[in-house]
Structures are given as structure tokens and as C-alpha cells.
Amino acid sequence: MVELGNDWQQLLQAEFEKEYYLELRQFLIAEYRAYNVYPDMHNIFNALKFSSYKDTKVVILAQDPYHGRGQAHGLCFSVQEGTPHPPSLVNIFKELNADLGIPAPKSGNLSKWAKQGVLLLNTTLTVREGCPMSHTKKGWETLTDKIFALLNERAEGMVFMLWGAHAKSKTALITNPAHYILAAPHPSPLSAFAGFFGCRHFSRANEILQDIGKVPIDWDLNNGNCN
Question: Is 64 one of the catalytic residues?
């Protein structure tokens, strides 16, 4: 039913066979038939497809996908080519510029980050058009908490960038001392000035990666994207 094409497949296969996921799948079949639902069903698991378990170096977490047409494509905060940048993404690019001097790119597609090992994960992976949070508490959170638990178990360290109260609530799932947590307010215009701006998470993540012997992330999307 789900083809991920990397090590996540074996790690999550048992979850895809559990009752909660089978019920979620039936809910999604009905939703996709009756409404516009994002992302496209073929893009639901892009975060896992683009960043394998063994290659994940940084985790960025959000709550649910963008709910407007042409935006979501399975990577949190990312939008498809040619789509205007949503406000939170605008602020992410502002902080990136302030932190590393990288100009805001024309494209808001973050696939280049994902393919370097940045797991861009929403805790709910689908949403009905125009209805934020419409697919919460349908089963997705059980699956994504399992993903977090598996990441926590990995011996190799990684960096968790947790922005906003919802993302920071997952701190309790990160108990392995091998991992690093960078927490800040959400990049939304409502909270960015409360501490997201100035958090310098992009440079701090790269410093951590270098300290633990990993190649840092090239955060510059102006050097060509990976579609």
C-alpha cells in the first residue's frame, strides 16, 4: 500500500498493517474522493522518501500541510515550484539570511534540503483544502510519533529543530543523549519576533553536525534545487 523505497519501508511496515493505519487509510480514501485534499496522494510520504532513516541528519517538524491549492507536496514548510511563499516560509528565509547571509530564493521548494538528510516532517500528513487541522486525530499522529521514536533509538546523533509549541511538545520523545534539540518559537508572523528571529538554528545545526563528524547542510537554495 505504501512504497517508500528506502530503509523506512522495513522500519514502518508493521505500522502500515495495524488497525489504526488501516482505518486511517479508509478515511483518506473517502476524503480524496469527496474533497480536494493536499498533498497529492503520491506525495504524502515525500519526507520519508527523500530522507532515509540512516541518512537523516536534521529533523524539522511542523503540524499539518498547507491547505491551499498548489502548495503542499509532502515536505513541511515547503511549497511547489511557482507558488508564492507562505508567511512562515518568508520568515524562515529571513532568518536564514540573517544567520548565514543567504538571500531568499525564488522557489520555496525545500527538496534540496530534504535530499541532504533534512527530514521535513509534519505530524499530520494530509489536510482538506481550506480546512487546517481537518485530518488531525485521525491516526497520523500515531504514525509520526512512531517515526520520532525510531529516530530517537538511532545511535548516530542528529539535530532536532523544533519551532513552536506543537513541535516542542515532541521533546519528551527525544530521550537519547546522542541527539541535539534546538527549540524556538514558530516562524509564523504571530510569533517570529518572540524568538524565532535570531535563533540562528541553521548555523548552529551545521556546527553540531561538524562536531559529530557529519557533512553540514548546504542551506542555500539559490544554487539549484533538487526536484
Answer: yes
